[in-house]
Amino acid sequence: MPQPAPALACRSLSYAWGQQTALQQVDFQIPKGHLVGLLGPNGAGKTTLISLIAGLLRPGNGNVELQGQDIGALGPAARGQLGFVFQSVSLDRFMCVTDNLRFAAGLQGMSAKACDQRVEALMELVPIAPLLNRTVAGLSGGQQRLVDIARALIHTPNVLILDEPTNALDVPSKDAVWRTLTRLQAEAGLTLLVATHRMDEAGSCDAVVFLNQGRVHWQGTPAQALQQMPAQCVTATRPVNLTDWFVWTLQKDHSGE
Fold first, then answer.
1. CA distance 139 to 91
2. Least confident of 51-65, 110-124, 221-235
């Protein structure tokens, strides 16, 4: 029986900024309904990769596939399958939340009525109900991020891609955002790719993809990552965690082992 096509796949994806190589032969795939963490140090190529998936950049080589189809061949239709949350909040600070969502819906060709119906459904998954009539500038960073996630979901995409969504948030706000993401996966069956520097978040993912120097240096489950740690790195005082693995992997890569 043939295996279903992955929700999202990168196939030998490469990109260069002039003479500077940003990505080299990046290959990974995400099954439908999975939550995958994209890890790597600053400059590893995570944001460039997300920009390529979003269609903001054109790959030098390789391609991105949605449900087994080349995203380039899909054209504008692909935008309906993808939702994006970028590092900077994509909201008008001087408009209320409802108007921001209606504006985003209008860009997707949705009517005000269809938008309002979608917002009603989203409120079951994203805790934005108390915020709808408030101006974005008056919201906390965590609240703005939750509204930004709702904006990215207004057109009912199948795949949600987020670039460091909890960056600069306090612990309660970070937890609220992450609870929302796991709920979207569990209750809405959404496929998620989340770039993050937080190893506690990575530990909650179904799998992680580790980028370094523009290449995929490792991919697998968090449990498999910890199993990689050599015996000399394990102490009796505390169990190893993904932060230990992250540092060890970077040191190993830089040493050329």
1. 11
2. 221-235
Asked whether the whole model's pTM tops 0.90, one would answer yes
Q: What is the pLDDT of residue 23?
A: 96
Going by pLDDT thresholds of 50, 70 and 90, the confidence category of residue 255 is low
Decide: 59 and 96 in contact? Cβ < 8 Å.
no
Structural domains present in the chain: 1-81+158-223 (3.40.50.300), 92-156 (no CATH)
Single-letter amino acid code for the residue at 204: S
What is the rounded distance in angstroms from the CA atom of residue 50 to the CA atom of residue 27?
14
